Amino acid sequence: MGVPLLIHQPSYSMLNRWVEDSLLSTLDELGVGTICFSPLAQGMLTDKYLGEIPEDSRAARKGSSLSQQMLTKENLENIKSLNAIAQERGQSLAQMALAWCMRRKEITSVLIGASSPEQIKENVATLGNLEFSDDELKRIDSFAKEGNINLWARSSSN
Asked: I want to staple 24 with a disulfide (CB 3.0 to 4.6 A). Which of 51, 106, 146, 147 is the partner?
């Protein structure tokens, strides 16, 4: 229709890194902004799933976008290790996950899905600690692995 593409909205998180293969560099080359959705991996990158799956959680509900099958042993081990790094940084896991997404120059913004005023406050507090050392990024990369959680992969590849 003659309208230039100004923004692209892919899913991206520490457990859903498919955009790093070529999409982010292509968008940067074209001058297209990137607003990432699901940077907290459907809530997996919060403190909610560090222990048992809470009965009132998204993962406990049938028909939810976050299924218990996504909370694999490997994903949970990686999440717990990422949480330890976040604690060393003086951040919650969610804050570190948001900062990690925003560290890339290609990322214009990230979308959060807060369900309470407290979550909004916690997420905004991310802005107080956006820097990562090279060592932190190396350590994070050893646990921020593709977790087979991209619910939108099919629609992204069409």
From this structure: 106
Q: Can you give the CATH number for the domain in which 77 is found?
A: 3.20.20.100
Q: How many domains does the chain have?
A: 1
157 lies in some domain: no
The half-sphere exposure of 109 on its side-chain side, counting CA atoms within 13 A, is 7
Separation in Å, CA 29 to CA 9, 90, 109, 113, 129: 16, 35, 17, 29, 28
Identify which of 111, 103, 100, 130 has the alpha carbon closest to the alpha carbon of residue 36. Answer: 111
> Can you tell me whether residue 25 is helix, strand or coil?
helix
Cα 69 vs. chain centroid, distance in angstroms?
18
Q: What is the pTM of this model?
A: 0.84
For 141, phi then psi, to 5°, come to: -60, -25
Minimal CA–CA distance to 34: which of 18, 23, 22, 21? 23
Question: Tell me: the pLDDT tens digits for 89-128?
Answer: 999 999 999 999 999 999 999 999 888 899 899 999 999 9
Determine contact, residues 98/130, Cβ cutoff 8 Å.
Answer: no
